[in-house]
Structure formats: C-alpha cells, structure tokens
C-alpha cells in the first residue's frame, strides 16, 4: 500500500517536470518562426478583440509565428514586468504605459528600435508627440500604440434631479453645479469623484488653473509646483472636499469611481474605455454624456495618456517581435482596436469614419492635453506629488508649505 | 448541580459561543458573498443569506477564469514539494537524533538560528540565485524551492525521534543494518504520527505559499491558487462574488484536510510547543 | 538532553592506538563509519546550505553594491546603510513593526488564554468548538486578506455596518484601511483574529501538562477557583508563555502578505513594514543593494530582540 503511494507520487511529479516547461526556447530561423509573448493590460473587451481579431490576423499573415497573449491587471503590471525582466523570465513585446518607458529604458530592459531598417517608415506615420514618449538619451525605445486622455463624464439622471441642464463649461460653473447637487441629492451622493492623488488624477485641474508641475523643459519644479496657480487649483479641490462635494474615496477604501458613477457620483474624469465599460454595466448611452474638462484660468487641459509598444532586450526572437510590432501599427490592427476604444496613433486615421462618434470629444481634448513629466524618475516624482496632496487633504500640512517642500524634493529627482 | 455551578456553566457556554461567532463571522460573509450574483454584492445591509443565491460564480471562476488550471498547479506543486521536504527533513532529523558526526552541532544550531529569521528576509539573494539556476517561472522550480522548508521540520522531528524507544533500533543495529534501513524500515513506521503531522503542516504551507510564487512566476498558465486569486482580485476589485468563489475553491481542500486529520493536527501543534 | 547515539561496530580504539602505524587505519575506519551518514544527510544539508546559508552571505555582499540585475553592479561601500539609517520610511517601518507586535502579541496571548480556559472545561462539543476557533489559523493569509478587504470597506463593509447600524458603537462609518490612524490597528486586529486558535491550542497543551493532583491538593487545602488559577495555573504556565512570546513576536515581524494585499504599506506608509519596504525596493524599483541592506539591518535588530527576550524571560522563570 505504502509502496503504491510512493510510486504514484513519483510518477505524478516526474510527469509534471517536462510538461510544465514554460520557457521553451525559440529558434530564430531565417523564415519567421517561434512564439512572441505579448503582455498588456487591456480591459476585457479590448482583450477579446486582440485575441479574436488582431492576433489571428497576424498569425494568418505569418503562419510560422504564434503570439501568446497575457492580459494582466494594470495595477500590478509594472511590478510584474520589472521583476520578470530582472529574472530573465519576461515577455517579448509589451504594451507599456507611456510613463514607464523612460524608466524601463534607463535600466536597460528595452531594445532600441531606431536602429532597425523598418523604423523610419513607421516613424513617419505616427503622431510626433506620442512618438516622443519613447525617446530616451538619444534613442527611441518603442513606438506609440494608442493614445487617450480624460474627459468629463456626467450622469444625466443625477443632473436632472439637481436641476442642471448640461455639462459645466467653466470651473466656476463646475463649483456651482456641485453646490446644486449637494443641495438636491443629499449626503452619500457626491458631485465629483476621483480615484487618487496621482498626476494622472489631478494634473488636469492644475493645468486648467494655469499651474504646472515643472517648467516646459522638465528640469525644474520650483516656481511651478508651488506657483500661485497650482496653489489655487489645489485649494479649489480641497474646498470641494471639505464641503462634502468631492467623494472621500479619493483617500482610499471606498467605492471606486466606475462602481459609483451614476449612483453616488455625478461626474468623473475618465478615458475612452469608459464607454465600453459603462455599456457593460448596463448604462444605456442616454444616461450619461461626455464633455471637455471645464475651462479654468489656464484653459481646458487634460492629461495625455496612452501606451507604447516596446520590445524587451531579453527577447530571443527579435525578428518575429519586429513583425508583430509593425503589424500592431498597421492600419488594419489600429482600426480593429480603434473600434473598441483604443484611439489610434496613425495620422492617416484621424478623420476615419470607422470610429465611434464619442472619439470627437477625446480628439478635441487631446489638442490641448499635456503629457506628464517624461523622466526615468517619474514613479518617484508621482509618489512625492500624490503623497504631498494626500497630506494636504488629510490636514497634515497647509497647502503652500506642502507644495514648497514638494517642489524642492522634485527638483532633486529631476536632476 | 447547584445553582452556582449551573450559572458558571452557562457563562462558559455563552462566552464560547460568542467567541466562536466572532471567529467564524468573516467566513459567513465569505460564503454568503460567493453565492451572490455580482449585481447584489456591495450592498447595505451586507447580506448574510445570499439574495438570489447562485453557483454561477463558481462556474465562471473555474472555467473562464482558469482556476481549474491553478488548482491543478497548486496540487502538483504542494504534493511533490511536501513529499520531498518530509523525506529530506526526516532523514536529517533521524541522523541528528541517533548518530554523531563532526559538524553535527554546528549544523543543528545554525538551522535553529535561521528559524528566528523572517522567511522573506532572504528573498532578494534567493531570487538572484534562482535566476542563475533557472528555477524561475516553472513548476519544477517552485517544487524545488518549496522543498527547502527544512529547518522547522527537522527541529520537530528530531524531538519525536529522540523519544522513540531504542530497543528495536539497537537490535537491528547489532545485526549490521545500514543507516537507510534503520531509517526506512524501523524508524519511519514507528514515527508515523509525527510524520503525519509534519506532512500536514508542510502541505498547508506549500499550498498557501504566496510571496515566492508571486515573485518567480510570470506565465499565467503556471499560477498557483494564491497568486491566481490575488491577481484576480486586482482585476475584479469589486466583483467580490467571483473573488470569494475563487477563495472558497482555494480554501475548502485545506479545511477538509484539517477536519479529517484534526486530531493528528492538534496533537502535532501541541507537541511542537512542548519540544520548544 | 543528548540521547545516546549509535556507532558502527569497530574495534575498541584503545587497542589500535597501542599498535604503531595504526593511526591511518583508524582514520579509514572512521571515514567508513561517517561516509554513509554524510551521504544520508546530504540532500537536506545541501538544500539548507544553498538556499539559506549562501543567500545569507550573498545578501551581505549585495548590500555593498548598487545593482538592478540588468546593468553591471556598482560598488558603493556603506552608502546603502547610510541611506537606510537616514531614510524616514525605514524608521517608520520599524516603528510600525513594533506597533504590530505591541498590539497583536498581547492580544493573542490574552484572548488565546481565555479561549483555552473555556475550551479546557468539561463541556460538550469541545472538539467542535476547538475546530471553529482553529479555522482562521488554517485559512491562508491570501484568503483572509481578501475577506477583510471586503469586511473593512468604508462604504459598504459589514464591520462598519455592525458597529454603526447594529451596535451603535461608532458615530459614522470609518475608512478602516484608508485612514492612516486606523489602518495599522485594523491589520493588527486581523493578526489577532487569525492567531487566537493557535495560541489557545498551545495553552491547552500547557494546561493539560499540569497534573491534576496539584489542583486536588489545593482544593483539599480550601483554595477557591480564583486562587487555584492565580497560584497554580499561571506560574506553571510560564514555559508556555515564554514559548508563545518568542514565537508570536517572530510571527509578528513576519507580517507581509496581509499588508501587501490590503494596503501595500499605505496609506502614507502607515502600515509599511520593513519586509514590504524591502520587497518594494527590490522588485518595484530594482534597487537590490538597498533592499539587501535593509534586510540585513532588520535581521540584526531581530536577532538582538529575540536574544534579549529569551534572556529576560528565562531569568524570571528560574527562581
């Protein structure tokens, strides 16, 4: 009996060993062969398109190459990528958030693409501004893949209940609408919700008030992070919070912006994926609208987001990777992903009628949208930024003191 | 019984039940939410009896969310690594208990010292080492790394082995038995309860291991249940119905094993304290 | 207490020593005796040396470098240590570690003793209750953390509901994991909840090792329930208490998974532990040298703490 147990055990373990090999090597044969492991943080809808349309189309074109798609939640993706790169177990091609690219390039994890013969022709087809997010110390370490920004989503039923006819066009209107909503809908309902204190969350407001994080050449924060305009923007948000109009979930631990939109929250800032997301949560399009960020003293500014497509230096099958990268930037793939909310980066597709109508709001907002600081230290800068503002909201420090010390710290990080 | 004794007994029961309620209340919500369709989760008042109870969450999680795969991975890894660690630990413990050799005390006390360190403290150099030994991102890598949970088992088993009467062993020894024979044919059958306890503890630890798997596994097909569960929660942060259905899948085998082997378990825990 | 060990049959050493030229033979015999033993312990020892001792040494070496695994390492001497000692987050993490210990260890000790005393009584369904109390112990930290993420939710969580709407203990809902003042105690409470069962079982072992005769003798002398408890139970539980304190403190400094999943050190590093900080430095910032330095400082401190504990408590025990 015992012997049987032992034999069974050994057999199970022995079988597992060859079968569970994950890192099978690819031979880079002259005609394209092998596997390309592709990591991304697509939403479930986007994942569906990539897996059922884009990748099969690519594999049809290159029968010898198979693409292994891994969609990871955004929250843990950067850490996983870094750890996997360090351990040599990383993917081949990554759809990376634009703000990670300088840092990844700085630690030598990415393959520079500008030395490839096909690069110049692709380079000509994409938006210059998005291409710049891949630039680091003289080389391009990737290509833009999709772009996006945040616009104002508002709940029509909640507006109606508060007696508001349309989206606020200016920050003053915004404040007035918030007061109305508070008065009409009572406690537990908020006019605006934001998911956190990061640059992605709050920089639109700072820019809209005419403030900024750094100067135009991204070398200095003093005089900008702690400028009067930035101070005004922060105090504006702080007053909304104190009046109970900005949801306390910004501090964490409550109901997320998506989960509460239309129920607890009347307005949120979010990107094009929201449309598909809201549809999934059974929100007919008649119940919400999208508008530009309300205009402030500095105009209406939002934040540039998007993803770049990069190739990992460790990849052993760079020829196949290059084919995949080029395919993702083809009109075919960009159109497929464009229909589901991934705004394309090809200049030739800007006026295409293939894309959903709501793109027009985003494209208009993108005209005045600003990028976050392109620096390998962005993660740390963002950390200082969000910690500072969180401290202000928690009442640990008065706004101007906090901003002054933040500016000083960020100066050091920008060196 | 006198009135005083009755009141005392009633108080004991009251406190016990009250305490037990606090202990299991989280489980009640866990189970209830797992059977609740997502549209009704995150409501006030939080439901104890699930409204519109359904098993759809379990079906979804097992199939579309790949938990079946994770369950398989966890089973294989936990079983194999437990077998290895129990084997190796008991061999070493036997040698400590019954043999003398140069370096014995040094080895034993250095193992004891490392028990005082938090297990995670060495994860950075271990990661680098695993990278060079190609143990990352594979199930066999996990099995080998998990089987390194040796010091604690050695410590516990040595105590048991020392207490086993020596007559049988002395007799076999005079007959010229080799160390392997002594161990396998004589000591192991005698030490069955201790081995059982150590096996159960190791299995649970390996089944639940999280941090090393999180750090070393990149391929989603190789996720074990703890990792799959955590990454799943990040993706579906408010779909607690699905998350808890997955959690139950991860936790029910453990509870079943515990309930079946309860007595050995508790005896093992108590004995480990006495040895300490 | 060292048990007697076995030696392979060999000629009495004394006889051989008397004969000149026999030293080599003695050595050969010794080797023949030892070789099987060394082979026998080889797997376990090899794994221990490779996976524990080598990394321990490697971490020390690594702490003197700046390295991210993808570019060549740079020697920086004591720079990482200086940085750690002047890093406010490192000190915050240490303070947090102490706070976790101060809250969770006495909590488990007291409540565990209470549970053990209850379970030690002559009651029916004793095994059933014991199982219920032990369930949290065998549930994995991942599942426990995910469950409490829901329970502690600041807008729809059951704990808020019970404390506010049912028991009317708190005036308004608390963002347990989102407020820097409540986050750490909230996690420490989970530590307590999860550990009571184990602590209780250890106490039960200690309680059951007290011979019944001692109690009976005391009862004959007229000692009441409370007196018996204070004069007999508590003093004779000393070794159990010592064991528990050492183990629980070690366990408390092992806190990682629950913090990683529930708050990842936030909000504002109020739940950060040295382990989470070390992990993030190593695997999110790829600053391996710094992570190694932090881990070494922490190891030294823990070593000192544990040694001090044992010495202090041992002295009080031996009277």
Gyration radius from CA atoms of chain C, angstroms? 27 Å
**Which class of one domain in chain B in CATH terms?**
Mainly Alpha
Largest sheet of chain C: 2 strands, antiparallel
CATH topology of chain C: MetI-like fold
Please tally the β strands of chain C and state the result: 2
Instruction: Give the helix level of chain C as a range of percent.
Output: over 70%
Q: Please report which band the strand proportion of chain B falls in: under 5%, 5-15%, 15-25%, 25-35%, 35-45% or over 45%.
A: under 5%
* Broad structural category of chain B: mainly alpha
Distance between the termini of chain C: 21 Å
**Low-confidence parts of chain C lasting 5 or more residues at pLDDT below 50?**
1-5, 7-17
Please report the total strand number of chain B as a whole number: 0
Mean pLDDT of chain C: 86
- Compute the CA-based radius of gyration of chain B: 23 Å
Q: What is the mean predicted local confidence, pLDDT of chain B?
A: 87
* CATH homology group of one domain in chain B: MetI-like
Q: Looking at the structure, what is the overall shape of chain B?
A: globular
Helix content of chain B: over 70%
């Amino acid at each position: 009996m015992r012997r049987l147990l032992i034999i069974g055990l050994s057999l199970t373990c022995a079988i597992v060993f060859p079968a569970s090999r994950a890192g099978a090597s690819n031979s880079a044969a002259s005609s394209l062969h092998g596997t390309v492991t592709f990591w991304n943080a697509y939403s479930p809808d986007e994942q569906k398109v990539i897996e059922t349309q884009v990748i099969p189309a690519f594999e049809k074109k290159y029968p010898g190459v198979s693409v292994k798609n891994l969609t990871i939640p955004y929250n843990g993706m950067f850490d996983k990528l870094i750890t996997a790169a360090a351990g040599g177990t990383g993917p081949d091609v990554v759809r990376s958030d634009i703000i990670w690219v300088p840092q990844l390039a700085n630690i030598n994890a990415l393959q520079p693409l500008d030395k490839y013969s096909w690069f110049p022709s692709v380079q000509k087809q994409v938006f210059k501004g998005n291409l710049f997010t891949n630039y680091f110390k003289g080389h391009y370490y990737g290509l833009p893949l999709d772009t996006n920004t945040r616009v104002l989503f508002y709940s029509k039923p909640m507006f109606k209940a508060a007696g508001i006819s349309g989206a606020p066009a200016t920050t003053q209107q915004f404040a007035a609408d918030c007061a109305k909503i508070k008065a009409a809908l009572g406690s537990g309902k908020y006019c605006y919700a934001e998911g956190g204190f990061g640059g992605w969350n709050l920089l639109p407001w700072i820019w809209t008030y005419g403030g900024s994080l750094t100067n135009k050449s991204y070398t200095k924060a003093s005089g900008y992070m702690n400028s009067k305009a930035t101070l005004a923007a922060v105090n504006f948000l702080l007053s909304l919070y104190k009046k109970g109009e900005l949801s306390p979930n910004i501090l964490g631990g409550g109901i997320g912006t998506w989960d509460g939109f239309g129920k607890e929250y009347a307005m949120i800032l979010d990107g094009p994926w929201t449309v598909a997301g809201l549809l999934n949560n059974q929100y007919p399009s008649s119940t919400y609208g999208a508008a530009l960020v309300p205009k402030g003293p500095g105009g209406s500014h939002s934040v540039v987001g998007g993803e770049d497509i990069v190739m990992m230096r460790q990849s052993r099958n760079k020829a196949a990777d290059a084919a995949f990268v080029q395919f993702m930037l083809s009109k075919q793939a960009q159109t497929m992903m464009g229909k589901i909310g991934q705004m394309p980066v090809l200049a030739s597709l800007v006026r295409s009628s293939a894309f959903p109508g709501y793109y027009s709001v985003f494209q208009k907002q993108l005209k005045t949208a600003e990028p976050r600081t392109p620096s390998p230290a962005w993660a740390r800068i963002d950390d200082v930024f969000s910690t500072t503002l969180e401290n202000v909201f928690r009442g640990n420090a008065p706004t101007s003191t906090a901003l002054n010390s933040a500016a000083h710290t960020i100066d050091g990080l920008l060196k | 019984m006198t009135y005083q004794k009755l009141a005392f007994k009633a108080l004991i029961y009251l406190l016990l039940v009250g305490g037990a309620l606090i202990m299991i209340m989280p489980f009640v919500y866990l189970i209830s939410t797992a059977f609740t369709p997502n549209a009704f989760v995150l409501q006030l008042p939080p439901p104890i009896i699930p409204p519109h109870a359904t098993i759809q969450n379990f079906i979804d999680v097992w199939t579309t969310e790949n938990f079946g795969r994770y369950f398989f991975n966890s089973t294989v890894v936990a079983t194999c690594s437990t077998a290895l660690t129990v084997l190796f630990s008991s061999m070493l413990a036997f040698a400590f208990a019954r043999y003398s050799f140069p370096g014995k005390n040094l080895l034993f006390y250095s193992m004891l010292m490392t028990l005082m360190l938090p297990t995670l403290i060495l994860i950075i150099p271990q990661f680098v080492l695993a990278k060079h030994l190609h143990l990352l991102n594979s199930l066999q890598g996990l099995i080998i790394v998990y089987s390194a949970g040796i010091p604690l088992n050695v410590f516990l088993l040595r105590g048991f082995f020392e207490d086993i009467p020596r007559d049988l062993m002395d007799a076999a020894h005079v007959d010229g038995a080799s160390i392997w024979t002594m161990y396998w044919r004589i000591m192991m059958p005698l030490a069955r309860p201790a081995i059982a306890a150590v096996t159960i503890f190791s299995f649970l630890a390996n089944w639940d291991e999280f941090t090393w798997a999180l750090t070393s596994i990149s391929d989603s097909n190789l996720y074990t249940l703890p990792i799959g569960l955590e990454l799943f929660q990040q993706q579906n942060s408010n779909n607690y119905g699905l998350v808890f259905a997955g959690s139950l899948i991860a936790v029910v085998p453990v509870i079943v094993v515990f309930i079946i082997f309860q007595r050995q378990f508790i005896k093992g825990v108590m004995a480990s304290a006495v040895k300490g | 207490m060292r048990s007697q060990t076995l030696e392979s049959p060999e000629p009495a050493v004394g006889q051989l020593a008397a004969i000149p030229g026999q030293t080599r033979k003695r050595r050969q015999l010794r080797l023949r005796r030892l070789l099987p033993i060394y082979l026998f312990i080889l797997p376990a020892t090899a794994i221990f040396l490779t996976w524990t001792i080598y990394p321990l040494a490697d971490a020390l070496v690594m702490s003197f470098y700046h390295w991210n695994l993808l570019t060549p390492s740079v020697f920086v001497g004591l720079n990482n240590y200086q940085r750690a000692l002047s890093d406010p987050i490192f000190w915050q993490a240490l303070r947090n570690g102490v706070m976790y210990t101060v809250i969770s260890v006495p909590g488990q000790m007291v409540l565990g003793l209470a549970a053990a005393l209850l379970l030690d009584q002559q009651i029916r369904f004793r095994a059933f209750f014991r199982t219920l109390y032990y369930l949290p112990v065998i549930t994995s930290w991942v599942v426990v953390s995910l469950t409490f993420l829901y329970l502690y939710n600041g807008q729809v969580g059951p704990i808020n509901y019970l404390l506010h709407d049912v028991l009317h203990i708190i005036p308004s809902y608390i963002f347990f994991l989102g407020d820097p003042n409540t986050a750490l105690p909230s996690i420490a409470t989970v530590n307590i909840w999860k550990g009571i069962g184990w602590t209780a079982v250890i106490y039960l072992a200690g309680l059951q090792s007290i011979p019944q005769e001692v109690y009976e003798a005391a009862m004959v002398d007229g000692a009441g329930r409370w007196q018996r408890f204070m004069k007999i139970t508590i003093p004779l539980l000393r070794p159990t208490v010592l064991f528990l304190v050492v183990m629980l403190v070690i366990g408390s400094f092992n806190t990682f998974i629950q913090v990683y999943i529930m708050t990842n050190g936030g909000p504002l590093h109020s739940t950060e532990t040295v382990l989470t900080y070390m992990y993030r430095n190593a695997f999110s910032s790829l600053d391996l040298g710094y992570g190694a330095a932090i881990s070494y400082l922490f190891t030294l401190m823990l070593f000192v703490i544990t040694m001090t504990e044992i010495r202090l408590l041992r002295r009080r025990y031996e009277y």
